[in-house]
Design a protein that fits this description.
Blueprint: H1 11-21, E1 27-30, H2 37-44, E2 52-60, E3 67-74, E4 78-79, H3 81-88, E5 92-95, H4 98-105, E6 121-126, E7 134-141, E8 144-149, H5 150-157, E9 160-162, E10 165-166
Parallel strand pairs: 3-6, 6-9
Antiparallel strand pairs: 1-8, 2-3, 2-5, 4-10, 7-8
């Protein structure tokens, strides 16, 4: 979805149309508004490891110059920014600012989906997340989530799959 069309259609609508178009067999879950992964997972009733936690990173340096990556990791893991940096050939990587993340994804913070509709945003998914039969994520809204088979997700999103999640305590993402 080109950034200039975000005002024409919501990311939620784009997502629903994409899943319907690909006959993804997803389930749409309604719940109280929640953007924190652990709390949203509890509301949806699934293990945290099945949550597709989506974080926008800014990578600088390397052959591509500055670019952005949508890193998707299991909800019980943290993104390894060094792994993303190395994978994409950058010299530095860190979290994108909230405004950039929301502009590139068309989603408010806490509701970012594991799909990219903007060619400036590269999608990279932790390989361990795809070991799950089903993943859950907010549906570009804080009050709705999607349950989707990983087979359908991989077929539709066609992500770059790599080891980008670290072990250890999950970091709190601080936004300005």
């Amino acid at each position: 979805m080109p950034a200039d069309t975000l005002t024409d259609r919501s990311a939620h609508r784009w997502l629903m149309e994409l899943l319907d178009e690909h006959d993804a067999g997803h389930r749409l879950l309604h719940h109280p508004p929640e953007g924190r992964t652990a709390q949203a997972s509890a509301l949806r009733g699934h293990p945290l490891r099945q949550a597709a936690k989506c974080l926008v990173l800014r990578v600088a340096g390397g052959p591509g110059g500055r670019h952005h990556v949508l890193a998707v990791v299991p909800g019980d893991r943290r993104v390894d920014t060094d792994a993303v940096r190395a994978l994409t050939g950058g010299s530095r990587a860190g979290f994108a600012d909230r405004a950039s993340a929301e502009r590139l994804t068309g989603c408010v913070s806490g509701s970012i989906i594991p799909f990219t509709f903007d060619p400036r945003l590269r999608l990279v998914v932790e390989r361990d997340l795809l070991d799950e039969d089903e993943i859950y994520f907010n549906a570009a809204r804080l009050d709705r989530s999607v349950a989707l088979s990983t087979r359908a997700y991989r077929r539709i999103a066609a992500p770059l799959v790599a080891a980008i999640a670290g072990r250890g305590p999950v970091q709190k993402v601080m936004t300005p």
